[in-house]
Amino acid sequence: MDISNELADRLMRLVVSADYKPSKPKQIAALMNLDGDGYRELRRVVKQLVLEGRLVYGSNHLVFSTGSIGGPQDTVRGTFRRAMGGGFGFLRPNHSGDAGSDLVEDLFVPPGSTGGALEGDLVQAKVRPSRKGGNEAAVTEVLQRARRQFTGTFRLISGKPFVFLDGTPYEQPVSVGDVRGLPLENDDKVFVEMVEYPLDDGSGGEAVILERLGSSSNPAIDTLTIMRQYALPDEFPEAVLDDARKQADAFEDGVVPDGRKDLTKLLTITIDPFDARDFDDAISLEREENRWRLWVHIADVSHFVPIGGALDEEAKHRATSVYLPDRVIPMIPEIISNHLASLQPDKIRLVKTVEIEMLDDLTITHIEVHNAAIHSDMRLNYEQVDQFLAAPETFPEKWGEPVCDLLLRMHKLAMQMRKARFKRGALSMDMPEIKLEFDRSGKVKGAFRTENTESHQIIEEFMLAGNQAVATWLDGLGLGYLHRIHPSPERRKLRQLSMFCKDLGLKVDNVESRFEIQAVLDMVAGTPLEDAVNFAVLKSMNKAVYGPQTDGHYALDMEHYCHFTSPIRRYPDLTVHRLVQKLLDGVKTPDDPFTSLVKLGFHCSDMERNAAQAERDLIELKLLHFLKKHIGETMEAVISRVFADGIHARCIKLPVDGFVPITTLPDDKYRFERRGNILQGHKEGNRYRLGDLLTVRIAKVDLQDRQLYLEVIKNQTARGESKPLAKTSSSKPKYKAKRQAERRGKKKRKNR
């Protein structure tokens, strides 16, 4: 038997075994202990077996045996994830909780094949070949619903009670039958439990009303509506609060416990948002001849949250704190998060400290993690530090020379670290956050976009350094734990990004490496195209997730990375702290089962995504309430997305997106040019392109569909440009565009 036949036999025995999970050739080579030459031969053998019909290539070149899970026409069970608009979704196979699951990809579920499944439902589906290559799935049965309770808007239709559900793709309402004498009026917000789910087309469906939340015209009801919609908890169970109180009673304030490194004499400060209530990180920094010594102090939450107790189980369930515009839903009760574990000034607090020694060229010469106690000397906020950096000579009298010198050292080192990080290929692609301003009654009076100023960058660099140092240490020991993973983007998506940038007229050849991507981001910074290009870059990237794989972080260009620096608000950080504690105590550290870590990683990733979406939706809802009082007013906006049925524009003064249906543009026959992102008319001046500066009027606010509609008063960019192109056969009849616009207007979020 020659080498190829022997390798083929070994390969077939592997892929038909019960333990095999669909894998790429590179992972298969690792499972078979093949060297570089063996891997190259394996790839040739796989291709030959595919041609012979004995193996099947799945999406992204996963290898299946013919008829195995993932093969054509096979049945698979998994968790359904619905996309935001478009009627499609993705299926995460339920064997993704098993060992090797990191090698299994989600299956695309096209429109019309979702079987009425909603976000998080456990479903059964048929796997079939996709016309675009690889496989896709069609849901055949919903086995278990992830949610039975929803918020919605109550309406009487022909004298019968119905509810339009929030956060679902259903355009038709569900019947609610008996309203139990509740004092309900049209457009009241209600909380319901489903009795019968609608079909895939949205027809049918029945629910029972559990609670009247209040009038939908009252902005105060927005937060409660979003909390119910995203199943965010109201209060902590009494058992959890009792557990937290016991921790508080046992804590001896003002002393350094035995066995902890006493760092209370080390000059230490915190820098946080001005309205922060929990302070989970602090910094110390000293200059020693030709080297730096950095201490990143992180609140030792693990000291107060024993494994397996009521506190721990609740924290694991929540997985993250949720930061809504008008309230915080903490992962851990405030008696711990805002008191015992919070690094408040002038108090001795317990920490896990990452001590990093580095040379002037930033070469790290020593990393050590301590169980320690600190005394924060001063609490500063970002605005104060930015003011200091603008005029440091004016602050010594107020803050003292030691604190001012510390801040100058921190600024110097952090900026050097930041410059070196981007030089190595890291990306800076975070979209600015929106902060709402409230009046005394709690109503929105305005909004602004946060800036990533140098004070923010100082803390960001030191937190990144702490996270990377801990991950490097733990990976060096070969231990299993939750990494923060950002997979490399697919080449296909990067090619699409390159084409998008060229279509915009940007002078780029390719946008496929980190350096090329960052060059494009720098090119559009501060221009009308900035948001659109940043969004396109984010869309081309995979999402960062939690998992036990050592796959590195693409955007940060870090091989070893985890989350360690926010255990007050993120459960993965807390699990890493516990592993560190075992190492510091010299306790045996058996690896957590891979399966358990995968499941925990999925849970934490999903809860993080749920929290982020809840925050975005609530900001949008509150802004819509605010804008409803300003219908008819004009403002400037920049075109941020272009579609065949209209355009999206981001308002400049108030950071909110609005939709301009093509039917409201000046009367003309428009055609959509995907290349260039243009709606092109035939009359002079009727051209709308990505990045154009517009004057718009607030035309309509639809609170049910959560959509702002704008009308274009003037295209300031296109005014005076050359005549539009001549009529072509590709011009879209306006009545077709109108139907598209009406359908798009019913979606609650637009391709975010």
Automatic annotation (TrEMBL):
Residues 719-752 are annotated as: Disordered. SMART domains: RNB. Its EC number is 3.1.13.1. GO terms for molecular function: exoribonuclease II activity; RNA binding. One of its GO terms (biological process) is mRNA catabolic process. It comes from the Bacteria. It is an enzyme of class 3 (hydrolase). Its main location: cytoplasm. One of its GO terms (cellular component) is cytosol. Residues 632-713 form the S1 motif domain. It is found in: Cytoplasm. Keywords: Cytoplasm, Exonuclease, Hydrolase, Nuclease, RNA-binding. It catalyses: Exonucleolytic cleavage in the 3'- to 5'-direction to yield nucleoside 5'-phosphates. Pfam families: CSD2, OB_RNB, RNB, S1. Belongs to the RNR ribonuclease family. RNase R subfamily. 3'-5' exoribonuclease that releases 5'-nucleoside monophosphates and is involved in maturation of structured RNAs. This is Ribonuclease R. The lineage of its organism: Bacteria, Pseudomonadati, Planctomycetota, Planctomycetia, Pirellulales.
